[in-house]
Specification:
Number of helices: 5
Low-confidence stretches: none
CATH superfamily of the largest domain: Nucleoside Triphosphate Pyrophosphohydrolase
CATH class of the largest domain: Alpha Beta
Shape: globular
Radius of gyration: 22 Å
Strand content: 25-35%
Mean pLDDT: 93
CATH architecture of the largest domain: Alpha-Beta Complex
Helix content: 10-25%
Bound molecules: zinc ion
Largest sheet: 6 strands, mixed
Order of helices and strands: EEEEEEEHHEHEEEEEEHEEEH
CATH topology of the largest domain: Nucleoside Triphosphate Pyrophosphohydrolase
Oligomer: single chain
Length: about 290
């Protein structure tokens, strides 16, 4: 999965005193999930700017994000404060590339894909927490933890993480898995999935989503694994469960274009092994669901 970068390790400990050095990676996002980089047209490899590539950047405008092993990642917000630098010739020799294409079109080591997805989540959060939602004053960075603090009313805002479930529904008797495809967006095989609503448990999300998307009841809901998915600010929580009662699927036509019981042989996996969904389909295919 995307986060499985061992032996490399992402250290997300917040260190407000961290200063960028010459080799620190500088991440700049545009709207629509694009990241500043440079494409080698021959190898399709994307590289990202480091501090040493930018002579006119103001170091104090960088925000420390995290490190992977001994490589530090800093964020430069794409906002009006940094407009002059972002319009400079130093930056115009780079282009913006869509994060989703890092999974398919461009070559990019998995460690950096994971770093980029996670950095995007923080970049989005920093963009929407510049001002206090309670009183409208400009927020400041906390000096002790990853948080934004309003100097006027004391409001503290922590990074937002949206919980969502991925559900492998199994028909044990027929040895089949409920496989779906979304109506819009990602085109490959998927599983029933959905966001946890306020006031419900993760298990209740599982039951509700399967009913909403496929019109069936489930039982024996058990946890499998989880996965951070930064480009949607999600923590995805995987569950397996079994259908109970009727196997007949009533598909939610608003969300899905395909929902069917498939045997292990019939399941076509996603092209890349980044998603929890894909791993869950894979373990079912291999007969390893317990
Ligand atoms: Zn405030």
């Amino acid at each position: 999965m995307i986060q499985d970068i061992a032996p490399a390790h992402l250290n997300n400990h917040y260190d407000p005193a961290k200063i960028a050095d010459e080799n620190s990676i500088i991440l700049v996002f545009s709207d629509k999930k694009n990241l500043l980089g440079r494409l080698d047209s021959a190898t399709k490899e994307i590289s990202f700017p480091r501090l040493k590539d930018f002579k006119t950047i103001e170091k104090e405008k960088l925000t420390y994000l995290f490190s992977i092993d001994d490589e530090d990642f800093f964020l430069l917000l794409n906002d009006s404060e940094n407009k002059d630098f972002l319009n400079s010739s130093e930056v115009s020799s780079y282009d913006f590339y869509n994060l989703r294409d890092f999974r398919s079109i461009y070559y990019y080591p998995q460690t950096y894909v994971y770093a980029s997805f996670t950095a995007y989540q923080l970049a989005e959060w920093y963009m929407v927490t510049k001002f206090c939602g309670k009183c409208g004053a400009e927020n400041e960075h906390s000096k002790k933890e990853r948080a934004m603090i309003c100097p006027k009313c004391g409001n503290i805002i922590y990074p937002r993480i949206n919980p969502a479930v991925i559900i492998g529904v199994i028909d044990k008797e027929a040895n089949k898995l409920l496989v779906t495809r979304y109506k819009v967006g990602y085109g490959h095989n998927a599983l029933v999935a959905g966001f946890t609503e306020i006031g419900e448990t993760l298990e209740e999300t599982v039951s509700r989503e399967v009913m909403e998307e496929a019109g069936i009841h489930v039982t024996n809901i058990r946890y499998y694994k989880s996965q951070p998915w930064g480009i949607a600010s999600d923590i995805l929580v995987g569950f397996f469960c079994e259908v109970t009662g009727s196997r007949e699927i009533t598909m939610d036509n608003n969300e899905l274009k395909f929902a069917s019981w498939l045997s292990p042989q019939e399941i076509e996996l996603q092209p890349l092994e980044y998603s929890l969904t894909n791993e869950m389909m894979k373990v079912f295919k291999e007969g390893d669901v317990h």
